[in-house]
Amino acid sequence: MHKPLHIIILAAGAGTRMKSQVPKVLQTVGGRPMIIHVLGTAMQLQPAGVHVVFNPDVPEVPAACAAYDITWAPQKPQLGTGHAVQQAMPGIPDDADVLVLYGDIPLLEGDVLQTLIEAPTTGLKVLTMDVANPRGYGRIVRDGSDGVTGIVEERDATAAQKAITEVNSGVILGPRKVLVSCLDNLASDNSQSEYYLTDIFSIAYMKGIETIGVVAPVADDLEGANDRIQLAELERRYRMKKAAELMREGVQLADPQRVDVRGSVMAGSDVYIDINVILEGDVSLGDGVHIGPGCVLTNCQLAAGTRVHAYSVLEGMRTTGACEIGPFARVRPGTELMQGSKVGNFVEAKNTSLGRNSKASHLSYLGDSSIGDGVNIGAGTITCNYDGANKHRTVIEDDVFIGSDTQLVAPVTIGEGADIGAGSTITKDAPAGKLTVSRARQVTIRSWKRPEKK
Ligand code: UD1
Ligand code: MG
């Protein structure tokens, strides 16, 4: 029988090295707070309980994690990682195994934790990593037979210990009873006067408890972010991982280094994504979707065959058939574009449905509109949807032709097959099948003479 697994996530540190008003664990990687990534990984292990140690003066942290079932353990003052773990212990049953994670290691993956869980020992385990540059990490000191005799923090290490390149990832696992007995012996006689969690290894070793170090296969995934340089490095690596996932799904990326995925992307086959594209939130891309350079897509669903041309910004919209968007289009929430429709350059659409084969090719604003099939919206058409207090709808029925530079003052309906003359300001419903035009008739003043300079 497996013992119940309880996970402690440490998130009370001040994160002073970030020099930020934002608590460290809420700094984002891939558009989401680091702690949310860690919680996602923790949940994959289906633990009996998750306990987050937090600073009660920073309620933003629990607020950001409201979607998760968490036991919150306040730590004040913050006397170090060992002291932090102690704060969570009262909420954990005596027979549990305890896994300690940090809130600032967002790239951590579930399978490496599984390896640690399965490593056989009744004592303490630490997930270690071999790094080229061990600076800032606790060094793993081993005895001749591979046991971990201790973990020495950089600041407290001798020159010889500093040369060790196997370091502490921060991930530690052990039976609650063993952890508690070692934590009880912690002292703060070190360079930072803190209670170091890492000291439990030398304490356990001296007590004759087995202490093992499991080397993680991919060290990079365990790196934490203490400052903004490390944060940017994690972001870069996250980007590369997401790009690799997309390519494995069959997406062609013009350059995997120049696409940012900040959410979850579902993609069909033969999708092409050009450089400098940002995909945020939930994005789904049907077969053969083509995204031009410099586009930003947030929570979008694009049907198979849709082409988004360069520098278009799309949010909360969907296409239900192949259509053309951009270049330089802005499509805002609540917009649905149907098969064969087109939103062209410098066109903004919001909360609008554009029917089959309907086109707004240039310089228009379509807000709160229901546009039927086969409609042509001339350049410079504006739906005047806002009267200063309320928003109103514009309805344009099938096969309507709207001449260029038309203002449609909502609420207004343009009947099926109607033509609207260019330059009209339409304030009343226009009947089906007729030409409606509201501009003044053209006149030529025959007697006109240009004034001359005196
Ligand atoms: C720690 C480890 C080091 C390891 C490194 C890996 C210790 C003493 N050192 O160093 O061996 O190589 O992580 O990244 O454990 N925290 C609290 N309360 C506190 C102090 C810290 O909750 O009182 C939290 C922080 O929010 C953070 C985590 O513990 O999530 C680690 O603290 P941090 O200050 O980043 O430790 P490092 O100096 O990086
Ligand atoms: Mg750290």
Description:
The protein is α/β, with parallel strands linked by helices. The chain has 2 domains: 5-222, Alpha-Beta Complex (Spore Coat Polysaccharide Biosynthesis Protein SpsA, Chain A), CATH 3.90.550; 235-436, Hexapeptide repeat proteins (UDP N-Acetylglucosamine Acyltransferase, domain 1, 3 Solenoid), CATH 2.160.10.10. It contains 8 helices and 39 strands. The strands form 7 sheets. An 11-stranded parallel sheet has the order 12-14-16-19-22-25-28-31-34-37-39, covered by helices on one side. Strands 13, 15, 17, 18, 20, 23, 26 and 29 form an 8-stranded parallel sheet that branches. It has a 7-stranded mixed sheet with strand order 5-4-1-6-10-7-11, sandwiched between helices. The radius of gyration is 31 Å and the shape is elongated. The mean pLDDT is 96. Bound molecules: uridine-diphosphate-N-acetylglucosamine and magnesium ion. The site of magnesium ion has 3 residues, from loops.
